[in-house]
3-oxoacyl-ACP reductase
Amino acid sequence: MTDPFQLQDRTYIVTGGAQGVGYALVEFGLSRGANVVMVDINPAQLDDAAAHLDHPRLMTFTADVAVEANVEAMVESTIARFGDVHGLINNAGIVRAAMAQEMALATWQKVIDVNLTGAFLCLCAVGRRLIEKAERGDPNPGRIVNISSDAGRRGTIGQINYGAAKSGVLGLTMSAAREWARHGITVNSICYGVVETPMTDTIRNEKFRDRYLRQIPLGRFSDAAEVAPATWFFLTDAASYITGQHLSVDGGFHIAA
């Protein structure tokens, strides 16, 4: 019997893959037999990550996900290297903190451009290829996972741009799931809580750390390796009848008062 959790010989793109959660996602996918395209805007970090992983099924690609031409080239290069694309983890994101009344428009727009518009561009670029496969008769054309956040479900303080973008990702997920279900393409989202990564350095001082920890029933932040398996689950055949869903991997933060 075929293992529904196996990803052997399938090809997936992971954006924001050179560090933190993205790196853990790449590493997990490779461990399950997938070909993985690790995408990041920082070529030096990509080179370092690729050297550390040193894997024959890994491809790197430098791209700004907020630039449509970069995203199209990312998908074309993936197909040129591996012959196909089976899915996407839309993980690229940035944080630019400020209270709402003090936030410059440029600060708002930069986060929206990367975290929401970038997710849209990647979703559409990969989605078009998956639809083409479906129209050629492929019964399992592919799957997409968008990385959102509990900030998009509960709101956040000091990062209204990030919260708005991640809430938008939830709407993006549900709308794409509705549109593409007819093609057999599933689209789901993962909502992380606070993960111990370089991007969360801003909340590692004692004041903010204690405030967040009090709201997490499990009483700790997660490790990047803990969120990777749940994310990849949505890309496996075991999740073939799941679409338009949001899964929080957050130690219970989303249910805390």
